């Protein structure tokens, strides 16, 4: 006889720490897993510190079997989802589990039951915790470590959720680009030069003396550029402030650019050092010495070879125009030139919706290739 599975709701700090540290057991034999920073994970799940919880509520559960903690999951209800998308959708996230169908189904049953009781008619995920944070379950590309702010999974995870009856909702792609060589085809280079000839289109670095305002500009462009995307949600004022605060340590002026047209910001691109490279050996701990190692690595030029582009966008008024295309390509090229100049060799541009063919083709034009796929799953709860 198999031992029964017990589901425990996380209600105190000790249980929350168990929840945060469970991946150490799940991924212990995976050489590509990168331990997240425990302090950062604790803050994300802290209802008093994460502004997400100003418009959302969530529950967290642990699964136990044979005296061991063997799985975890969250269920979330974000009021902004119904406000902007007019559906009673509930989310799940932070799904990590041993390869055990009984454990996985007990976790998913618990999440679905709570969401049904709260009036939700559809389950979508994983979101950890929202679409503006870590999104999707890795289903292809297990042979390389995850980039900054991207999820990782084991191949059997997708089997566990599909066996439960969940189906594909949407795929998200991560693109990879070799940046230590020229990437622009001659035709694209000519298009950029033509678009910039009259002086109306200009690129500028973010001004660190005016950091907060420039970041507000970047995030405002982001909200506008992606507002029509699948399940898109704008950052609230509180989330905007928190994002600006969180990014200040990572943002570099030579990696972050705004494109202006007639002096008005119309596009942006933010490239960040791949923090996962720099924290992989810290085992999730910043104290007592990890924080000093990280700060040093952020300062020296040779501390990372890869970067990630998490934010890139052109205002809707310029999308599908030659000038808008020139802005996007010019931002990529100016960033590539500076990043490769300090010794970085590869970039991840992520994520891109599978049906965003315009952006996918643009990235493939400059030599990007799709190297990871993340899947969003759904289930009818009615």
Looking at this protein, list some descriptive labels.
382 residues, alpha+beta, Aminopeptidase, 2 domains, 13-stranded mixed beta sheet, two-stranded antiparallel sheet, 15 strands, globular
Describe the structure.
- This protein is an alpha+beta fold and 382 residues long.
- The protein folds into 2 domains: 6-172, Aminopeptidase, CATH 3.40.630; 180-344, 3-Layer(aba) Sandwich (Aminopeptidase), CATH 3.40.630.
- It contains 13 helices and 15 strands.
- The strands form 2 sheets. Strands 1, 2, 3, 4, 5, 8, 9, 10, 11, 12, 13, 14 and 15 form a 13-stranded mixed sheet that branches. A two-stranded antiparallel sheet has the order 6-7.
- Helix 7 crosses helix 12.
- The relative contact order is 0.16.
Q: Over the alpha carbons, how many angstroms does the gyration radius reach?
A: 21 Å
What is the tally of beta strands?
A: 15
CATH architecture term of the largest domain = 3-Layer(aba) Sandwich
Write the CATH homologous superfamily of the largest domain: Gcn5-related N-acetyltransferase (GNAT)
Chain-wise SSE layout:
Blueprint: E1 6-9, H1 13-21, H2 23-26, H3 38-44, E2 56-65, E3 68-78, H4 79-85, E4 89-97, H5 101-117, E5 122-125, E6 127-128, E7 134-135, E8 137-140, H6 156-163, E9 167-178, H7 186-196, E10 201-205, H8 211-225, H9 237-247, E11 256-261, E12 264-273, H10 275-279, H11 290-299, E13 306-314, H12 322-341, E14 346-353, H13 357-365, E15 369-380
Parallel strand pairs: 4-5, 13-14
Antiparallel strand pairs: 1-2, 2-3, 3-4, 5-15, 6-7, 8-15, 9-14, 9-15, 10-11, 11-12, 12-13
Helix pairs in contact: 7-12
